[in-house]
Amino acid sequence: MQERYYFDHNATTAPSEEVLQALTAALRDDFGNASSIHHYGQAAKQRLETARREVAAMLGASEKEIVFLSGGTEANNLALMGVTSRGGHVITSAIEHPAVLHPCARLAELGIEVSRVPPGPSGWIDPDDVRRALRPETRLVSIMHSNNETGVIQPVQEIARIAREAGVLLHVDGVQAVGKIPIDLPLLGADLYSISGHKFHGPKGTGALYVRQGVNLKPQMLGGRHERERRAGTENVPGAVALGCAARWIREHGASEAERLRALRDRLEEGILGAVPGVAVNGDTRRRVPNTTSLRFEGIDGEATVIALDLRGFAVSTGSACSSGAIEPSHVLLAMGLPASEARSSVRFSLGRPNTLDQVDALIEATAAAALHLRRVSATYSHAR
User: Fold this and answer.
1) Which of 307, 321, 322, 357 is labelled catalytic?
2) Domain of 374: which CATH number?
3) Rounded distance between C-alpha atoms, residue 151 and residue 346, angstroms
4) What integer pLDDT is reported at residue 383 of this predicted model?
5) Is 245 a catalytic residue?
6) What is the pTM of this model?
7) Does residue 348 sit in the same domain as residue 232?
8) How many domains does the chain divide into?
9) Which of 23, 29, 199, 314 has its CA 20 to 30 A from that of 163?
């Protein structure tokens, strides 16, 4: 049977063994409703609050500032919809995930003006562009911490300073940053910060929103008074416990794992660039998370590369998993100024805990073979040569 290797960790990660153990134990033992006052309910409540402290510690926050949710999409929606109402103005960027862009489109339908700041060719948002976009009626700025396709880290701390001086709230989509770079929210300066468990080896359906103390947040899920009246619904205690377990691992091992992944990513990138002519890196290579590289292959459709590598046993991606099946080129790469042909030729490689040096070397060899084959059968590429 053909061995298979996974290099699409920005799309999702497999729950780690310690997370699986914590999740199954909580499903079995902590089935009580955390709002109940009897023994079973209070045992579940204790486990819930322990998990909240673990997530808070990973982010440098207070446990009172952590709202447990179903994932990054709900966190982004709650942040955007929960601090805005009819009228006003919101600033975001043109390279955000659809989980931010689509709620912003809904805000526009409600009469709130939305400005999208474009990136430079490196995929980096200039803080001065955010400053120039501010208006007296601006209520919120929403900028991602790192991009899901290129891995480029945005200057959130500088943007936070600009927003604070203007008296405007800042939301940061941190889904692709948590677990890859250190997060210190008081230092970062964000007022709201979204995370998703399945991006750092926690289970799907888990996540959280950091809400700085003093920020008024209007709940979007209505019902009981759960999560300090910020998100109604019986809490997913096993999911929170698993998320807390994943957060604890990041706090204890994240720094060393980031360095390991950076070395593997650099070897992969350099190996492909050395073995395959006509390949370029998308985005700033100095300011990016350590596990991600986005490469464009001249004359080869990205989807064809993904399929060719899958047939060789390697899972990679053309970009955001949420855009799978779309025939349109990446909105992120187009916003960076790439022509549609180059955007369509791009492939994302994102590494995670299971990846090894041997797997990286095998992927370099497979990518070189796939590119050679695809170019050989491409009449367009062959004719251009």
Assistant:
1) 322
2) 3.90.1150.10
3) 14
4) 46
5) no
6) 0.95
7) no
8) 2
9) 199
